């Protein structure tokens, strides 16, 4: 039998009060308590606590004697069976409280998940505002989308191709190289944003970090899509975009777009400089609305026989000219008529319509005559994504079929 130290006695007190100690052990506990004021106080406290437990549980009055130790202070204590029932009831109450708390947490999560759904389950494409792409066998598009799952954790279906439709003309077929999809915190909110990366050629799209990416084609540039009729370039206005899965199943579509496609049928240069002419591209931004002003500044003109014969912009962007006079008067935007003879300090500008939130790819085509030679220039692509501050119903075509 271990020595009856205070630590040993404290370990045995609950068993003693429950009547589960042997007579010999009970006697040793009583002898120690009788001579130890500290342990006697602990025993009295535990007896009172048990009596209070029984009263609060409504299981009857405390009964005399416990643990077979009638020789100690005869305070009212709970019967062993009553204490056991009280303990069981408290355990059940605690379990019910935990279950109710868990149900409340899950219910709150489910409520928030359903209430944050901006539209029925499905995929919704971003509205394409004031965009222009060059169709030369290497055309590329990045289309943001919104994925609304029907259940938590559901992933969007595999995307196979993107079709850009034109009135009375063949559609432009793009192959989906990759899809990036953002994560959510425990499935909240009830949607996920993503971007479709699609190209006219087959190839590999590689994310290089910090929003940068590159595309490595597996095949040479493709032939012309539309009958060129001997024209140097063909302009088409898109009427809609459709995303297809395997088996040509329609996954998402939008008709709320402003997209101009320019098919180049002659050699052209990507850049803003020809012999004797140097231009610079600029674009001003707003924190919420995205880019608002597109500008093409004439940095240098070394020849007098340079004229801009034409400029092809998205349909909503109408170019104007700005001539800066050598005075304190502010520059004025004037109608731009072609041919336009640029001069140093002059600029071609185009204002985006109000409410433009993206996405956009802007590749203006300039037709420039240098003496007897005609040169086709395409400004370096300027792309912008949708604004994170804009309301979802302004950014995505939530009215279209998902």
List low-pLDDT spans: 61-78
Sheet/helix structural class? alpha+beta
**Strand percentage, roughly?**
35-45%
SSE series: HHHHEEEEEEEEEEEEEEEEEEEEEEEH
What's the overall geometry?
A: elongated
Largest sheet data? 9 strands, mixed
Radius of gyration: 40 Å
Span from first to last CA? 78 Å
Helix content: 10-25%
In DSSP terms (H or I, runs of 4 or more residues), the helix count works out at: 5
What is the average of the pLDDT values? 83
β-strand number: 23
State the domain count.
2
Task: Note down, in words, how this protein is organized.
The chain is of the alpha+beta class. It folds into 2 domains: 6-90, no CATH class; 122-395, no CATH class. 21% of the residues lie in helices and 38% in strands. It is built from 5 helices and 23 strands. The chain has helices at residues 6-17, 23-35, 37-57, 80-115, 392-395; strands at 122-125, 128-135, 140-148, 159-166, 169-181, 192-199, 203-209, 212-217, 233-245, 250-254, 257-264, 269-270, 273-274, 277-286, 290-301, 306-312, 320-323, 332-335, 347-351, 360-362, 365-370, 373-378, 382-384. Strands 1, 2, 3, 4, 5, 6, 9, 10 and 11 form a 9-stranded mixed β-sheet that branches. The chain has a 6-stranded antiparallel β-sheet with strand order 13-14-15-19-17-18, with no helix packed on it. A hairpin with a 4-residue loop joins strand 9 and strand 10 (250-254). Helix 1 (6-17) packs across helix 2. Residues 61-78 have low confidence and may be disordered.
């Amino acid at each position: 039998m271990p020595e009856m130290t205070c630590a040993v006695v404290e370990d045995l007190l609950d068993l003693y009060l429950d009547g589960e100690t042997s007579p010999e052990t009970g006697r040793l506990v009583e002898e120690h308590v009788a001579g130890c004021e500290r342990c006697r106080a602990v025993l009295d406290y535990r007896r009172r606590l048990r009596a209070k437990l029984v009263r609060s549980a409504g299981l009857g009055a405390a009964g005399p004697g416990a643990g077979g130790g009638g020789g100690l202070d005869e305070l009212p204590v709970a019967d062993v069976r009553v204490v056991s029932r009280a303990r069981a009831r408290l355990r059940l109450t605690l379990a019910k409280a935990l279950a109710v708390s868990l149900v409340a947490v899950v219910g709150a999560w489910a409520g928030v998940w359903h209430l944050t759904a901006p539209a029925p389950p499905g995929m919704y494409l971003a509205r394409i505002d004031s965009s222009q792409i060059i169709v030369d066998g290497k055309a590329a598009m990045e289309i943001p989308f919104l994925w609304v799952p029907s259940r938590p954790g559901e992933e969007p279906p595999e995307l196979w191709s993107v079709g850009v439709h034109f009135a009375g003309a063949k559609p432009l077929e793009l192959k989906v190289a990759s899809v990036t999809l953002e994560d959510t915190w425990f499935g909240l909110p009830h949607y996920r944003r993503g971007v479709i990366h699609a190209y006219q050629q087959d190839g590999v799209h590689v994310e290089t970090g910090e929003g940068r990416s590159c595309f490595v084609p597996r095949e040479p540039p493709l032939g012309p899509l539309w009958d060129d009729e001997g024209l140097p370039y063909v302009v088409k206005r898109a009427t809609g975009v459709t995303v297809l899965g395997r088996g040509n199943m329609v996954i998402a579509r939008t008709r709320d777009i402003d997209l101009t496609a320019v098919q180049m049928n002659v050699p052209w240069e990507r850049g803003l400089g020809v012999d004797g002419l140097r231009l610079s591209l600029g674009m001003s931004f707003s924190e919420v609305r995205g880019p608002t002003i597109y500008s093409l500044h004439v940095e240098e003109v070394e020849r007098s026989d340079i004229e801009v014969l034409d400029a092809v912009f998205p349909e909503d962007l109408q170019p104007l000219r700005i001539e800066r006079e050598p005075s304190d008067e502010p520059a004025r935007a004037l109608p731009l008529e072609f041919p336009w003879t640029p001069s140093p300090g002059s600029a071609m500008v185009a204002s985006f319509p109000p409410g433009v939130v993206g996405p956009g790819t802007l590749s203006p085509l300039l037709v420039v005559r240098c003496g007897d030679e005609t040169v086709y220039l395409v400004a370096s692509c300027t792309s912008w994504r949708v604004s994170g501050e804009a309301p979802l119903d302004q950014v995505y075509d939530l009215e279209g079929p998902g």
